[in-house]
Amino acid sequence: MIYLFVGEDRNKKLSAYEKFVKSLPKETEVFSFSKDNWNEMEIESLYSGSGLFFSKSAVVLSNVLEKEDTREFILEKLPLIEESQNDFIFIEDKLPKAVLDAFKKARAEINYFEEDKYAKKGKEKFNSFLLANALGSKDKLNLWISFRQAVERGVALEELVGVLFWKVKDMILKRNFTKFSQEELKALSARLSYLLPEARSKGPNAEEVFEQFLLEAF
Description:
single chain, alpha/beta, Rossmann fold
């Protein structure tokens, strides 16, 4: 089944999404992807079949349709995703009619969240890379401040995990070990991969778990 949460009212959209995720059976394995940790091979394996240790999974994709190449990939694979036994959950800010029509054709459950035009006026979009730069600089105070600012502006936790995961991987690839050792970066990467799925499977508030992780990351 395909689920689409779309619209510029981030607070209502994410609230509905969180409620939906909490309604999933506890045994459901949750995988999260964003535009920053996109992996076509993993996506293909998830719509093609079930995993070795679980019968069904939920695949959360946050703002992956913003980039042209990933959008084309998803639209091409929608018929296969529709037939998958796993659930695919898309979280997007705004989509053109052609993309929405493709999701309708794939019989997706579409949830719209339009933002009040008066409330929207003057609202500034959060720069997620402030969070990544704070992590790269090992600046715990600004890491926490940036996280709180992002949450208050309604940025999806999946998007924040994605940008942090990208930053850690980038530091490993560039062998940037001035602030963290290679072993520390690998440990952070592994923890980020399972942070939100584990938090939601065990029941605690995912935002609180994420915040605690950042406070204890170094």
